[in-house]
């Protein structure tokens, strides 16, 4: 194998390795009710699941109102995409972004910085509920808007091994260049 083919193969391999990051979908949400607002970003898988929705993989944002705060984590659903009961809530963590009702009756379960566990779910396309038991018992009805977040861009971050391979390739290219220079001199 000549050196040009080797460098071409090395370039193709490192490009493929760096491009393996998956592109998830991001949706902004905003729930409004009397004295409460839950707003942020939902991150979903990019393929439909068994119930024709998208598994919610992450959530960021905040809840304003009694017991609210910064959203710290999504409570994982071991039975996803099917409903699970945990902390006294039934939830499935599935989003239906192109449906009239974007969250079903099970909804999404998450925590906030104050230690509260929140369930945001939908009764009907116009009636969503935000509920928590602690630190303040809250059950409010309100409306929710959901929209895609096209302004978010994803950049694949190469793994450390990719950087090592790139440095090795650059070193090898420098070595070959210096050998060629010696040959022509």
Major β-sheet annotation: 8 strands, antiparallel, barrel
Number of helices: 2
- How big is the Rg? 24 Å
Q: Please state roughly what percent of the residues sit in beta strands, choosing from under 5%, 5-15%, 15-25%, 25-35%, 35-45% or over 45%.
A: 35-45%
* Residue runs with pLDDT of under 50 for 5 or more positions: 10-22, 150-157
Q: Which secondary-structure class do the elements indicate?
A: alpha+beta
Query: Based on CA inertia axes, which overall geometry fits?
Result: elongated
**For the largest beta sheet, what order do the strands appear in spatially?**
1-2-3-4-8-9-10-11
| Helical amount | 10-25%
In round numbers, the mean pLDDT is 79
Instruction: Calculate the terminal CA-CA distance, rounded to whole Å.
Output: 25 Å
Total number of distinct structural domains = 2
Order of SSEs = HEEEEEEEEEEEH
Please count the beta strands (DSSP E, at least 2 residues each): 11
């Amino acid at each position: 194998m000549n050196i040009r083919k080797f460098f071409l193969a090395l370039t193709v391999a490192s490009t493929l390795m760096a491009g393996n990051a998956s592109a998830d979908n991001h949706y902004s949400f905003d729930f409004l009710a009397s004295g409460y607002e839950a707003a942020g970003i939902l991150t979903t898988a990019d393929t439909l699941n068994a119930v024709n929705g998208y598994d919610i993989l992450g959530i960021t944002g905040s809840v304003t109102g009694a017991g609210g705060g910064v959203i710290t984590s999504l409570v994982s659903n071991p039975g996803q995409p099917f409903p699970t009961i945990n902390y006294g809530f039934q939830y499935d963590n599935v989003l239906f972004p192109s449906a009239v009702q974007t969250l079903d009756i099970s909804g999404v379960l998450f925590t906030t910085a104050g230690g509260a566990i929140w369930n945001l779910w939908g009764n009907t396309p116009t009636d969503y509920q935000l509920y928590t038991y602690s630190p303040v018992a809250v059950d409010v009805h309100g409306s929710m808007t959901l929209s895609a977040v096209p302004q978010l861009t994803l950049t694949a971050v190469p793994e450390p091994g990719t950087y090592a391979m790139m440095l090795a390739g650059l070193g090898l290219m420098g070595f070959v260049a210096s050998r060629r220079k010696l040959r022509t001199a």
